[in-house]
């Protein structure tokens, strides 16, 4: 990872937009999405999945990305994670262009992507295998992460014996184990029941507050975004683009019954054209 000053210079060299530069250019863990476009060239007509998408996430900030199905959320997630190339523009992490997957980002997918043949502790420690840590240090880190997500007593269990919510806690612990600058999540709670989902949301906020990580969280669930985010990047479809960025000025912990909560949900729904 480049240093702070180097990162800021690079941001200038690469011609990042002033707005994006101002907010993320100097932040070691800030993310800048700078005029990103993505066209899928299929057999038939090319699909413009993303068009001129720019926004920034400040270091330590919790930003949600919401929008209707097909508006390019997963495409953008994959571009930011370095899993696919943008057709236009670039993504900067701490001022440095993202050119491929990096341990500076902890990534959590909707499907748990756990290794079924490894125990919970082995799954969490997977990304640490290639680090310089000694066995004892790795062990300690895994224990810390399991403690953080409340799964210490399941360290020797296998994924198949866990509920969906527990599997996603393991995935979060694994993503955080390498101490990434950014936690990047794509609909991570999409596969669990409503009650578990609300519990995982509360837990994620606790983890965010205790670790101070920068979080970018993709969801199509507007209430989830209003529960979690400092700011919400609202996307529109065809082509996938940013409709508006909404500040969520509601104190935490947030209650769904609070009028301010309802107003934000209504505002975001209106922007994405969904019925309230
Ligand atoms: P979202 O996650 O918001 O539902 P996606 O990023 O998955 O949206 O998809 C955005 C658009 O790009 C959709 O029209 C989708 O059909 C198209 N798309 C996604 N992945 C591919 C791909 N690998 N090849 C061609 N088109 C794709
Ligand atoms: Mg998606």
Automatic annotation (TrEMBL):
Domain of life: Archaea
GO molecular function term, any single one: ABC-type tungstate transporter activity
Keywords: ATP-binding, Molybdenum, Nucleotide-binding, Transport
EC id: 7.3.2.6
Pfam family, one: ABC_tran
SUPFAM superfamilies: P-loop containing nucleoside triphosphate hydrolases
Disordered: annotated span: 1-28
UniProt key word Nucleotide-binding: yes
One GO location term (cellular component): plasma membrane
CDD domains per record: ABC_NrtD_SsuB_transporters
Claim: Lipid biosynthesis is one of the keywords in the record: no
InterPro entries associated with the record: AAA+_ATPase, ABC_transporter-like_ATP-bd, ABC_transporter-like_CS, ABC_transporter_ATP-bind, P-loop_NTPase
Domain ABC transporter: 31-262
Location in or out of the cell: Cell membrane
Reaction it catalyzes: tungstate(in) + ATP + H2O = tungstate(out) + ADP + phosphate + H(+)
Biased amino acid composition, Acidic residues: 9-25
Enzyme class: translocase
Function of the protein: Part of the ABC transporter complex WtpABC involved in molybdate/tungstate import. Responsible for energy coupling to the transport system.
Assembly behavior: The complex is composed of two ATP-binding proteins (WtpC), two transmembrane proteins (WtpB) and a solute-binding protein (WtpA).
Family: Belongs to the ABC transporter superfamily. Sulfate/tungstate importer (TC 3.A.1.6) family.
The protein's name in its UniProt record: Molybdate/tungstate import ATP-binding protein WtpC
